[in-house]
TrEMBL record, chain B:
Gene Ontology MF annotations: ATP binding; ubiquitin conjugating enzyme activity
Ranges of biased composition (kind: Polar residues): 1-14
Xref: PROSITE patterns: UBC_1, UBC_2
GO BP terms in the entry: deactivation of mitotic spindle assembly checkpoint; ubiquitin-dependent protein catabolic process
Keyword Endoplasmic reticulum applies: no
Pfam families: UQ_con (PF00179)
Signal peptide start and end residues: none
Catalytic site positions: C113
UniProt family annotation: Belongs to the ubiquitin-conjugating enzyme family.
Keywords: ATP-binding, Nucleotide-binding, Transferase, Ubl conjugation pathway
Keyword Transferase assigned: yes
Stretch list, region Disordered: 1-28
Record organism: Lipomyces starkeyi NRRL Y-11557
Protein name: E2 ubiquitin-conjugating enzyme
Length: 274, 179
Protein backbone atom coordinates (compact mmCIF):
# COMPACT_ATOMS: atom_id res chain seq x y z
CA UNK A 1 0.00 0.00 0.00
CA UNK A 2 1.18 3.48 -0.81
CA UNK A 3 0.55 6.14 1.77
CA UNK A 4 -1.12 9.33 0.63
CA UNK A 5 1.34 12.05 -0.29
CA UNK A 6 4.10 9.59 -0.88
CA UNK A 7 5.14 8.54 -4.36
CA UNK A 8 5.94 4.91 -5.03
CA UNK A 9 9.67 4.50 -4.70
CA UNK A 10 10.28 3.28 -8.22
CA UNK A 11 13.93 4.20 -8.44
CA UNK A 12 14.96 2.51 -5.24
CA UNK A 13 13.13 -0.78 -5.60
CA UNK A 14 13.50 -1.36 -9.32
CA UNK A 15 16.33 -1.18 -11.76
CA UNK A 16 14.71 0.44 -14.82
CA UNK A 17 16.53 -1.95 -17.12
CA UNK A 18 14.97 -4.92 -15.39
CA UNK A 19 11.33 -3.80 -15.41
CA UNK A 20 8.99 -6.16 -17.19
CA UNK A 21 5.66 -5.06 -18.65
CA UNK A 22 3.68 -6.31 -15.69
CA UNK A 23 5.80 -4.39 -13.19
CA UNK A 24 5.59 -1.22 -15.26
CA UNK A 25 1.81 -1.49 -15.39
CA UNK A 26 1.64 -2.14 -11.64
CA UNK A 27 3.82 0.86 -10.81
CA UNK A 28 1.84 3.08 -13.17
CA UNK A 29 -1.32 1.96 -11.44
CA UNK A 30 0.14 2.74 -8.01
CA UNK A 31 0.93 6.29 -9.08
CA UNK A 32 -2.61 6.65 -10.41
CA UNK A 33 -4.02 5.27 -7.16
CA UNK A 34 -2.17 7.93 -5.20
CA UNK A 35 -3.67 10.58 -7.48
CA UNK A 36 -7.08 8.98 -7.15
CA UNK A 37 -6.97 9.09 -3.37
CA UNK A 38 -6.64 12.87 -3.64
CA UNK A 39 -9.39 13.40 -6.21
CA UNK A 40 -12.41 11.09 -6.24
CA UNK A 41 -13.94 10.36 -9.64
CA UNK A 42 -17.07 12.18 -8.46
CA UNK A 43 -16.69 14.47 -5.44
CA UNK A 44 -19.10 16.00 -2.96
CA UNK A 45 -21.33 19.01 -3.61
CA UNK A 46 -19.71 22.34 -2.77
CA UNK A 47 -21.34 25.77 -2.57
CA UNK A 48 -20.29 28.04 -5.44
CA UNK A 49 -18.59 30.41 -2.99
CA UNK A 50 -15.85 27.78 -2.54
CA UNK A 51 -14.68 28.68 -6.06
CA UNK A 52 -13.98 32.25 -4.91
CA UNK A 53 -11.15 30.92 -2.77
CA UNK A 54 -9.48 29.54 -5.91
CA UNK A 55 -9.47 32.75 -7.96
CA UNK A 56 -7.95 36.17 -7.46
CA UNK A 57 -8.70 37.29 -11.02
CA UNK A 58 -11.44 39.97 -11.09
CA UNK A 59 -13.14 38.58 -14.21
CA UNK A 60 -13.46 35.12 -12.69
CA UNK A 61 -14.63 36.50 -9.37
CA UNK A 62 -17.38 38.61 -10.86
CA UNK A 63 -18.54 35.68 -13.01
CA UNK A 64 -18.56 33.35 -10.01
CA UNK A 65 -20.55 35.85 -7.97
CA UNK A 66 -23.02 36.24 -10.87
CA UNK A 67 -23.70 32.48 -10.77
CA UNK A 68 -25.62 33.23 -7.62
CA UNK A 69 -25.44 32.34 -4.00
CA UNK A 70 -28.11 30.42 -2.19
CA UNK A 71 -28.26 26.86 -3.45
CA UNK A 72 -25.90 27.31 -6.38
CA UNK A 73 -22.96 24.97 -6.26
CA UNK A 74 -20.86 22.46 -8.07
CA UNK A 75 -19.65 18.92 -7.75
CA UNK A 76 -16.02 18.37 -8.74
CA UNK A 77 -15.25 15.53 -11.12
CA UNK A 78 -11.76 14.11 -11.59
CA UNK A 79 -9.86 15.63 -14.52
CA UNK A 80 -8.84 12.44 -16.25
CA UNK A 81 -10.01 13.17 -19.79
CA UNK A 82 -13.41 11.68 -19.06
CA UNK A 83 -14.67 14.54 -16.89
CA UNK A 84 -17.40 15.84 -19.21
CA UNK A 85 -18.67 12.32 -19.83
CA UNK A 86 -18.56 11.32 -16.18
CA UNK A 87 -20.14 14.60 -15.07
CA UNK A 88 -22.94 14.21 -17.60
CA UNK A 89 -23.57 10.55 -16.76
CA UNK A 90 -23.55 11.12 -13.00
CA UNK A 91 -25.93 14.07 -13.23
CA UNK A 92 -28.20 12.12 -15.57
CA UNK A 93 -28.62 9.35 -13.00
CA UNK A 94 -28.75 11.78 -10.09
CA UNK A 95 -31.68 13.66 -11.66
CA UNK A 96 -33.44 10.39 -12.49
CA UNK A 97 -32.95 9.10 -8.94
CA UNK A 98 -35.26 11.84 -7.69
CA UNK A 99 -38.10 10.71 -9.99
CA UNK A 100 -40.71 8.00 -9.51
CA UNK A 101 -39.96 4.36 -10.13
CA UNK A 102 -42.20 4.49 -13.22
CA UNK A 103 -40.30 7.42 -14.67
CA UNK A 104 -36.99 5.66 -14.03
CA UNK A 105 -38.30 2.56 -15.79
CA UNK A 106 -39.54 4.58 -18.75
CA UNK A 107 -36.17 6.32 -19.00
CA UNK A 108 -34.32 3.04 -18.76
CA UNK A 109 -36.48 1.44 -21.42
CA UNK A 110 -36.02 4.40 -23.70
CA UNK A 111 -32.25 4.79 -23.28
CA UNK A 112 -31.70 1.07 -23.80
CA UNK A 113 -33.84 1.23 -26.95
CA UNK A 114 -31.32 3.77 -28.28
CA UNK A 115 -28.90 0.87 -28.53
CA UNK A 116 -30.41 0.53 -32.00
CA UNK A 117 -28.28 3.40 -33.25
CA UNK A 118 -25.16 1.48 -32.18
CA UNK A 119 -26.22 -1.33 -34.49
CA UNK A 120 -27.08 1.15 -37.23
CA UNK A 121 -23.62 2.70 -36.89
CA UNK A 122 -22.01 -0.72 -37.33
CA UNK A 123 -20.89 -1.50 -33.79
CA UNK A 124 -21.00 -5.19 -32.98
CA UNK A 125 -23.13 -6.35 -30.08
CA UNK A 126 -20.29 -8.32 -28.53
CA UNK A 127 -18.28 -5.10 -28.59
CA UNK A 128 -20.77 -2.93 -26.72
CA UNK A 129 -22.96 -5.30 -24.68
CA UNK A 130 -20.83 -5.27 -21.49
CA UNK A 131 -21.00 -1.49 -21.27
CA UNK A 132 -24.71 -1.21 -21.98
CA UNK A 133 -25.35 -3.89 -19.35
CA UNK A 134 -23.61 -1.79 -16.71
CA UNK A 135 -25.94 1.12 -17.51
CA UNK A 136 -28.89 -1.26 -17.36
CA UNK A 137 -27.74 -2.60 -13.95
CA UNK A 138 -27.56 0.89 -12.54
CA UNK A 139 -31.06 1.69 -13.79
CA UNK A 140 -32.35 -1.34 -11.92
CA UNK A 141 -30.65 -0.40 -8.67
CA UNK A 142 -31.46 3.30 -8.95
CA UNK A 143 -34.94 3.44 -7.34
CA UNK A 144 -33.57 1.99 -4.09
CA UNK A 145 -30.33 3.95 -3.96
CA UNK A 146 -29.54 6.76 -1.56
CA UNK A 147 -27.72 9.84 -2.95
CA UNK A 148 -24.58 8.67 -1.13
CA UNK A 149 -24.81 5.23 -2.71
CA UNK A 150 -25.06 6.77 -6.17
CA UNK A 151 -21.90 8.81 -5.54
CA UNK A 152 -20.17 5.71 -4.26
CA UNK A 153 -21.34 3.71 -7.31
CA UNK A 154 -19.84 6.32 -9.63
CA UNK A 155 -16.59 6.23 -7.69
CA UNK A 156 -16.33 2.57 -8.61
CA UNK A 157 -14.19 2.95 -11.74
CA UNK A 158 -15.50 -0.27 -13.26
CA UNK A 159 -19.09 0.97 -13.13
CA UNK A 160 -18.63 4.54 -14.23
CA UNK A 161 -16.04 3.68 -16.90
CA UNK A 162 -18.45 1.22 -18.48
CA UNK A 163 -21.26 3.79 -18.48
CA UNK A 164 -18.91 6.38 -19.98
CA UNK A 165 -18.04 4.00 -22.81
CA UNK A 166 -21.75 3.39 -23.40
CA UNK A 167 -22.43 7.13 -23.61
CA UNK A 168 -19.34 7.69 -25.79
CA UNK A 169 -20.59 5.03 -28.19
CA UNK A 170 -24.05 6.60 -28.32
CA UNK A 171 -22.50 9.94 -29.28
CA UNK A 172 -20.17 8.37 -31.85
CA UNK A 173 -23.03 6.33 -33.30
CA UNK A 174 -25.16 9.44 -33.64
CA UNK A 175 -22.40 11.18 -35.60
CA UNK A 176 -21.87 8.14 -37.81
CA UNK A 177 -25.57 7.84 -38.56
CA UNK A 178 -25.89 11.60 -39.21
CA UNK A 179 -22.65 12.05 -41.10
CA UNK A 180 -24.01 14.77 -43.40
CA UNK A 181 -24.88 16.98 -40.43
CA UNK A 182 -21.48 16.63 -38.82
CA UNK A 183 -19.10 16.42 -41.78
CA UNK A 184 -18.89 20.21 -42.33
CA UNK A 185 -17.71 20.66 -38.74
CA UNK A 186 -15.14 17.90 -38.94
CA UNK A 187 -13.70 18.83 -42.31
CA UNK A 188 -10.34 20.52 -41.76
CA UNK A 189 -9.87 21.19 -45.46
CA UNK A 190 -7.82 18.05 -46.01
CA UNK A 191 -10.74 15.71 -46.32
CA UNK A 192 -12.64 14.55 -43.29
CA UNK A 193 -13.21 11.03 -42.15
CA UNK A 194 -16.15 10.56 -39.80
CA UNK A 195 -14.95 7.20 -38.62
CA UNK A 196 -11.45 8.50 -37.91
CA UNK A 197 -12.87 11.50 -36.07
CA UNK A 198 -15.09 9.33 -33.87
CA UNK A 199 -12.27 6.91 -33.16
CA UNK A 200 -9.80 9.61 -32.19
CA UNK A 201 -12.09 12.01 -30.31
CA UNK A 202 -15.04 10.06 -28.96
CA UNK A 203 -14.47 6.30 -28.81
CA UNK A 204 -10.95 6.71 -27.44
CA UNK A 205 -11.19 6.50 -23.68
CA UNK A 206 -9.76 9.45 -21.71
CA UNK A 207 -10.05 11.92 -24.59
CA UNK A 208 -11.89 15.07 -23.52
CA UNK A 209 -15.28 15.83 -24.98
CA UNK A 210 -15.27 18.63 -27.53
CA UNK A 211 -18.24 20.71 -28.66
CA UNK A 212 -19.29 18.19 -31.31
CA UNK A 213 -19.11 15.32 -28.86
CA UNK A 214 -21.47 17.07 -26.44
CA UNK A 215 -23.84 17.99 -29.25
CA UNK A 216 -23.86 14.37 -30.46
CA UNK A 217 -24.37 13.03 -26.94
CA UNK A 218 -27.40 15.26 -26.40
CA UNK A 219 -28.77 14.33 -29.82
CA UNK A 220 -28.22 10.63 -29.24
CA UNK A 221 -30.10 10.65 -25.92
CA UNK A 222 -32.91 12.99 -27.09
CA UNK A 223 -34.31 13.47 -23.57
CA UNK A 224 -31.67 15.76 -22.10
CA UNK A 225 -31.04 19.49 -22.50
CA UNK A 226 -27.50 20.45 -21.63
CA UNK A 227 -26.28 23.85 -20.47
CA UNK A 228 -22.56 24.52 -20.21
CA UNK A 229 -21.50 27.51 -18.13
CA UNK A 230 -18.21 28.82 -19.55
CA UNK A 231 -16.09 30.13 -16.70
CA UNK A 232 -13.19 31.64 -18.62
CA UNK A 233 -11.34 34.90 -19.05
CA UNK A 234 -13.55 36.21 -21.84
CA UNK A 235 -14.90 39.74 -21.33
CA UNK A 236 -18.08 40.30 -19.36
CA UNK A 237 -19.32 40.10 -15.81
CA UNK A 238 -21.36 36.98 -16.34
CA UNK A 239 -20.29 33.58 -17.61
CA UNK A 240 -21.62 32.69 -21.05
CA UNK A 241 -23.94 29.70 -21.09
CA UNK A 242 -23.92 27.46 -24.12
CA UNK A 243 -27.04 25.37 -24.53
CA UNK A 244 -27.35 22.08 -26.35
CA UNK A 245 -30.84 20.92 -27.29
CA UNK A 246 -31.59 17.62 -29.02
CA UNK A 247 -32.63 18.11 -32.64
CA UNK A 248 -34.95 15.11 -32.60
CA UNK A 249 -37.62 14.83 -29.95
CA UNK A 250 -38.85 11.65 -28.44
CA UNK A 251 -42.21 10.41 -29.65
CA UNK A 252 -42.83 6.68 -29.23
CA UNK A 253 -42.34 6.48 -25.46
CA UNK A 254 -42.50 9.31 -23.04
CA UNK A 255 -39.58 9.43 -20.61
CA UNK A 256 -39.25 12.67 -18.66
CA UNK A 257 -36.96 15.37 -20.04
CA UNK A 258 -33.97 16.36 -17.95
CA UNK A 259 -31.81 19.45 -17.76
CA UNK A 260 -28.13 18.94 -17.02
CA UNK A 261 -25.77 21.82 -16.29
CA UNK A 262 -22.00 21.60 -16.43
CA UNK A 263 -19.48 24.14 -15.26
CA UNK A 264 -16.62 24.52 -17.73
CA UNK A 265 -13.28 25.96 -16.80
CA UNK A 266 -10.65 25.82 -19.56
CA UNK A 267 -9.79 22.14 -20.01
CA UNK A 268 -12.16 20.81 -17.38
CA UNK A 269 -15.83 20.12 -16.64
CA UNK A 270 -17.59 19.81 -13.28
CA UNK A 271 -21.28 19.43 -12.52
CA UNK A 272 -23.12 22.70 -11.94
CA UNK A 273 -26.14 23.12 -9.66
CA UNK A 274 -28.32 26.20 -9.94
CA UNK B 1 19.97 -9.49 -32.66
CA UNK B 2 21.57 -6.72 -34.65
CA UNK B 3 23.36 -4.61 -32.06
CA UNK B 4 24.00 -1.60 -34.30
CA UNK B 5 20.29 -1.00 -34.52
CA UNK B 6 19.54 -1.23 -30.84
CA UNK B 7 17.26 1.59 -29.80
CA UNK B 8 17.60 3.30 -26.45
CA UNK B 9 14.92 1.62 -24.43
CA UNK B 10 14.31 0.45 -20.92
CA UNK B 11 12.85 -2.82 -22.12
CA UNK B 12 15.50 -5.45 -22.39
CA UNK B 13 13.89 -8.69 -21.37
CA UNK B 14 11.71 -10.74 -23.68
CA UNK B 15 11.40 -13.69 -21.40
CA UNK B 16 7.89 -14.92 -20.89
CA UNK B 17 7.76 -15.57 -17.22
CA UNK B 18 5.25 -15.20 -14.46
CA UNK B 19 6.14 -12.08 -12.55
CA UNK B 20 6.79 -12.91 -8.90
CA UNK B 21 4.52 -10.06 -7.91
CA UNK B 22 1.46 -10.91 -9.96
CA UNK B 23 -0.90 -8.00 -10.24
CA UNK B 24 -4.06 -8.39 -8.24
CA UNK B 25 -6.49 -8.56 -11.09
CA UNK B 26 -9.95 -7.28 -10.51
CA UNK B 27 -13.02 -9.36 -11.01
CA UNK B 28 -14.18 -7.59 -14.13
CA UNK B 29 -10.88 -7.80 -16.01
CA UNK B 30 -10.76 -11.54 -15.31
CA UNK B 31 -14.32 -11.99 -16.50
CA UNK B 32 -13.67 -9.91 -19.59
CA UNK B 33 -10.48 -11.81 -20.51
CA UNK B 34 -12.18 -15.17 -19.98
CA UNK B 35 -14.98 -14.16 -22.32
CA UNK B 36 -12.48 -12.88 -24.88
CA UNK B 37 -10.61 -16.17 -24.72
CA UNK B 38 -13.85 -18.03 -25.37
CA UNK B 39 -14.76 -15.79 -28.31
CA UNK B 40 -11.29 -16.13 -29.77
CA UNK B 41 -11.40 -19.91 -29.57
CA UNK B 42 -14.91 -20.10 -31.03
CA UNK B 43 -14.26 -17.72 -33.93
CA UNK B 44 -11.03 -19.51 -34.82
CA UNK B 45 -9.74 -16.84 -37.20
CA UNK B 46 -6.91 -18.22 -39.35
CA UNK B 47 -3.48 -16.66 -38.97
CA UNK B 48 -3.89 -15.39 -35.43
CA UNK B 49 -3.99 -17.04 -32.02
CA UNK B 50 -3.59 -16.02 -28.40
CA UNK B 51 -4.04 -17.56 -24.96
CA UNK B 52 -3.00 -16.92 -21.34
CA UNK B 53 0.51 -18.02 -20.41
CA UNK B 54 -0.70 -19.74 -17.26
CA UNK B 55 -3.94 -20.49 -15.44
CA UNK B 56 -2.82 -18.47 -12.43
CA UNK B 57 -2.33 -15.18 -14.24
CA UNK B 58 -4.95 -14.27 -16.81
CA UNK B 59 -3.33 -10.86 -17.40
CA UNK B 60 -0.34 -12.26 -19.29
CA UNK B 61 -0.99 -13.76 -22.71
CA UNK B 62 1.12 -15.01 -25.54
CA UNK B 63 0.02 -14.93 -29.16
CA UNK B 64 1.04 -15.67 -32.72
CA UNK B 65 0.53 -13.76 -35.93
CA UNK B 66 1.09 -15.12 -39.42
CA UNK B 67 2.22 -12.75 -42.13
CA UNK B 68 -0.58 -11.86 -44.57
CA UNK B 69 -0.49 -13.33 -48.06
CA UNK B 70 1.14 -11.17 -50.70
CA UNK B 71 3.36 -9.35 -48.19
CA UNK B 72 7.03 -9.67 -47.29
CA UNK B 73 5.89 -11.64 -44.25
CA UNK B 74 3.85 -14.31 -46.06
CA UNK B 75 4.57 -17.76 -44.68
CA UNK B 76 6.28 -16.45 -41.55
CA UNK B 77 4.89 -16.67 -38.03
CA UNK B 78 5.69 -14.31 -35.18
CA UNK B 79 5.26 -14.59 -31.46
CA UNK B 80 3.96 -11.68 -29.38
CA UNK B 81 3.37 -11.02 -25.67
CA UNK B 82 0.29 -9.26 -24.35
CA UNK B 83 0.14 -7.79 -20.86
CA UNK B 84 -3.24 -6.53 -19.66
CA UNK B 85 -3.52 -3.73 -17.09
CA UNK B 86 -5.96 -4.12 -14.17
CA UNK B 87 -8.16 -1.45 -15.75
CA UNK B 88 -8.40 -3.23 -19.11
CA UNK B 89 -10.34 -2.66 -21.40
CA UNK B 90 -10.36 1.03 -20.44
CA UNK B 91 -6.63 1.10 -20.96
CA UNK B 92 -4.73 -0.67 -23.71
CA UNK B 93 -2.68 -3.79 -23.08
CA UNK B 94 1.08 -3.64 -23.63
CA UNK B 95 1.88 -5.63 -26.74
CA UNK B 96 5.33 -6.46 -28.05
CA UNK B 97 6.91 -8.82 -30.49
CA UNK B 98 8.82 -11.58 -28.76
CA UNK B 99 10.12 -12.87 -32.10
CA UNK B 100 12.71 -10.56 -33.62
CA UNK B 101 10.65 -8.37 -35.94
CA UNK B 102 12.18 -6.25 -38.68
CA UNK B 103 9.44 -3.80 -39.66
CA UNK B 104 9.15 0.01 -40.00
CA UNK B 105 6.89 0.34 -36.94
CA UNK B 106 8.61 -2.10 -34.59
CA UNK B 107 11.84 -1.35 -32.73
CA UNK B 108 14.61 -3.81 -31.97
CA UNK B 109 13.12 -4.57 -28.56
CA UNK B 110 9.80 -5.54 -30.10
CA UNK B 111 7.99 -2.35 -29.09
CA UNK B 112 5.23 -1.49 -31.53
CA UNK B 113 4.08 1.91 -32.74
CA UNK B 114 0.41 1.44 -33.57
CA UNK B 115 -2.16 4.17 -32.94
CA UNK B 116 -4.90 1.87 -31.67
CA UNK B 117 -2.56 0.70 -28.90
CA UNK B 118 -1.83 4.29 -27.93
CA UNK B 119 -3.90 7.44 -28.38
CA UNK B 120 -6.68 5.76 -30.36
CA UNK B 121 -7.26 2.93 -27.91
CA UNK B 122 -10.95 2.34 -27.22
CA UNK B 123 -12.66 -0.05 -24.83
CA UNK B 124 -14.50 -1.64 -27.75
CA UNK B 125 -11.27 -3.14 -29.04
CA UNK B 126 -10.33 -6.63 -27.93
CA UNK B 127 -7.61 -9.23 -28.39
CA UNK B 128 -8.98 -10.24 -31.76
CA UNK B 129 -9.10 -6.70 -33.16
CA UNK B 130 -5.57 -6.09 -31.86
CA UNK B 131 -4.22 -9.24 -33.50
CA UNK B 132 -5.93 -8.42 -36.79
CA UNK B 133 -4.64 -4.83 -36.67
CA UNK B 134 -1.11 -6.10 -36.04
CA UNK B 135 -1.48 -8.54 -38.90
CA UNK B 136 -2.52 -5.77 -41.29
CA UNK B 137 0.30 -3.56 -39.99
CA UNK B 138 2.70 -6.18 -41.39
CA UNK B 139 1.38 -5.50 -44.89
CA UNK B 140 0.57 -1.82 -44.45
CA UNK B 141 3.18 -0.05 -42.34
CA UNK B 142 3.00 3.59 -41.42
CA UNK B 143 6.22 4.66 -43.10
CA UNK B 144 5.67 8.32 -42.19
CA UNK B 145 6.62 7.79 -38.53
CA UNK B 146 8.93 4.79 -38.42
CA UNK B 147 10.75 3.29 -35.45
CA UNK B 148 12.98 1.45 -37.88
CA UNK B 149 13.97 4.08 -40.48
CA UNK B 150 15.99 1.67 -42.59
CA UNK B 151 13.01 -0.63 -43.02
CA UNK B 152 10.79 2.34 -43.88
CA UNK B 153 13.25 3.49 -46.57
CA UNK B 154 13.65 0.08 -48.13
CA UNK B 155 9.92 -0.78 -48.05
CA UNK B 156 9.28 1.15 -51.28
CA UNK B 157 12.88 1.88 -52.24
CA UNK B 158 14.33 -1.61 -52.50
CA UNK B 159 11.89 -4.47 -51.88
CA UNK B 160 14.48 -7.17 -52.61
CA UNK B 161 16.90 -5.76 -50.05
CA UNK B 162 13.98 -5.34 -47.62
CA UNK B 163 13.13 -9.01 -47.90
CA UNK B 164 16.77 -10.06 -47.57
CA UNK B 165 17.41 -7.97 -44.42
CA UNK B 166 14.08 -8.95 -42.89
CA UNK B 167 14.91 -12.63 -43.35
CA UNK B 168 18.30 -12.23 -41.67
CA UNK B 169 16.43 -11.17 -38.50
CA UNK B 170 13.73 -13.80 -38.72
CA UNK B 171 13.72 -16.62 -36.21
CA UNK B 172 11.47 -19.62 -36.49
CA UNK B 173 8.86 -19.70 -33.75
CA UNK B 174 10.19 -23.10 -32.62
CA UNK B 175 13.50 -21.47 -31.68
CA UNK B 176 11.69 -18.74 -29.76
CA UNK B 177 9.80 -21.20 -27.62
CA UNK B 178 13.05 -22.86 -26.61
CA UNK B 179 14.55 -19.68 -25.23
Amino acid sequence: MVQEGELPTVAVEHDPDQLDDLTILRLTQEIKDVEASKNPLVGDFKPISVLLDEYKDATFRSKIKALGGGNAGYRPVRGDGNCAWRAFAFRYFELLSKLSKEDIEASSKFLLSRTGILDAAGYSETGYIDFVEETSNLFQKLPDMTPEQLVSEFNNAEVSSAIIVHFRLLAAAYIKTHADDYLPFIDDGEGADISEYCNRNIEAFSVEADHLALSALVNSMTTVDLGVVYMDRSAGDEAIVHNFFPTESTVEVDPPSLKIDLLYRPGHYDIFYK
Amino acid sequence: MDSQNTTPTTFSSHKMQDAPTAMADSHSVTKRLQSELMQLMMSNVPGISAFPVSDSNLCQWTGTISGPEGTFYEGLTYKISMTFPPNYPYHAPVIRFVSPMWHPNVDMSGNICLDILKEKWSAIYNVQTILLSLQSLLGEPNNASPLNAQAADLWDGNPAEYKRLMMTHYKDIGEINDE
